[in-house]
Specification:
By secondary structure, the protein is an all-alpha fold. The protein contains 2 helices and no strands. It is about 30% helix and about 0% strand.
């Protein structure tokens, strides 16, 4: 499992064929290096593989989800829009 950040931090959209441009952040650089190592190993060995690049991983210790968890624990629960999860469609 890799990350979309291997493509860079300022992209508006991502496509699989885009070049990796991880910038200077160790996390994205090492993910890009791991992808490259996998691709080279697979070429040499004929190994089938898949690289998964999720846009976000969340859990109880991720910094950006703490606010979401705090918000979700409110009573009453506040919903954005009509609360349908599909922008009111």
């Amino acid at each position: 499992i890799s990350t979309l950040i291997v493509y860079g931090f300022s992209k508006n959209h991502y496509e699989e064929h885009m070049p990796r441009q991880p910038g200077g952040v160790a996390y994205s650089v090492t993910k890009a290096q791991a992808e490259q190592a996998l691709c080279e190993s697979a070429r040499e060995s004929g190994l089938s593989y898949a690289i998964i690049r999720p846009g976000a991983i969340y859990g109880p210790r991720t910094h950006w989800t703490r606010g979401i968890y705090k918000f979700a624990r409110r009573r009453p629960i506040l919903f954005a829009g009509q609360g349908t999860g599909n922008n009111g469609r």
